[in-house]
């Protein structure tokens, strides 16, 4: 249990910060560096628990990975030299690790068993098991492949054309990574565009990937060549400070070198529509992933409607958007976001339950939330339920709440932002 009483002075949050490296990009850098031939260097790596789980899995398959803080060196020898793990691969809390790794394992000619923590055990795996079976992999799991632990006997894959049943970058990536080891050309068709870090990074490793409208194709039997990856700051982590800076009076925060991949910037579009004062400078398009500095100043916000094809571009930011909406004039409606039910927690239920304990007025719907603003929040005993993004959202809520807030299970924040409280404290000096 952690007791947070973060802001008593009446001053805003002020200063310049950097947020840790992008989680999605950090996972992929470790995975692709492990499949490549040669020495891959990763700068700006996120040393959070999720990405450390990815490193541990590849070390178990014989890859030499040296990691010190945000600097990583991977000595890859190509996929032929990956060895069968002699114990269960443990992904911890990381959905990205288990889903992308399953796609990779499906193409390798050995047997592996993967599992994770209690949250992973409840998350649907059939979304990757189904296409991997269609490609010829032998994949088993509890309830016919719905849940972990998963066992995978890979190898001898053939290509498929696969229409994604939900807009998910994890499913898309699992199929493309299996396709890398299949005979022929594998094509994934997306209902809506999802984050494209896999496609961008595969190209940086020398793999050819075709993207025509909603179709993404990869030809099998291509090999990866080691490279250097610069990971920008995670916009999903920056989001907590973009909202904190907007809703805490007298705040002015600059966040440096934030990833600005257009498949991830939905939070910025929504905050603009809510009336937030954001200034974007130092835009850089030179590297594989664009980045920029973002400055935020506090202001009054108004409620908006959020739904449709922007949802995949901000799916991880909905908890903090909901908090922003509690401080906005009018009603905010978030819809088309049923995927929130199968994240680290059921984020539709948990966001409403925990913020309502603090005095928010949030209703749940089948595919989203209705937030009635503006409400004053008061300190309460709340719980992250082991979900890092819920923990950080509640910590930001506690900075504007009257009185003391106790956040149970706040250590979950280490999954993606180990120094979150240090960064928040720096802005309060
Ligand atoms: C991720 C994709 C998203 C996102 C997750 C990271 C990725 O999940 O919520 O935090 O790195 O590919 P889905 O693919 O399930 O939408």
Describe this structure in words.
This protein has helices at 23-35, 49-60, 95-106, 126-134, 142-145, 169-179, 197-204, 235-247, 266-274, 318-326, 347-357, 388-400, 420-426; strands at 2-4, 14-18, 37-43, 64-68, 71-77, 89-90, 111-115, 138-141, 147-153, 161-163, 185-189, 209-212, 215-219, 228-230, 252-259, 277-284, 291-297, 301-302, 305-306, 328-334, 361-365, 368-373, 381-383, 405-408. It is of the alpha/beta class and 429 residues long. The chain has 2 domains: 2-21 and 232-427, UDP-n-acetylglucosamine1-carboxyvinyl-transferase, Chain; 23-230, Enolpyruvate transferase domain (UDP-n-acetylglucosamine1-carboxyvinyl-transferase, Chain), CATH 3.65.10.10. Strands 18, 19, 20, 21 and 22 form a 5-stranded mixed beta sheet that branches. Strands 2-15-17-16 form a 4-stranded mixed beta sheet. Helix 4 packs parallel to helix 6 (169-179). The longest helix is centred in the N-terminal third of the chain and has 13 residues, at 23-35. The model has no long low-confidence stretch (mean pLDDT 96). Shikimate-3-phosphate is lined by residues 24, 96, 168-170, 173, 195, 315-316, 339.
Keywords:
429 residues, alpha/beta, UDP-n-acetylglucosamine1-carboxyvinyl-transferase, Chain, four-stranded mixed sheet, 13 helices, 24 strands, binds shikimate-3-phosphate
Write a compact overview of the structure shown.
This protein is of the alpha/beta class and 429 residues long. 31% of the residues lie in helices and 27% in strands.
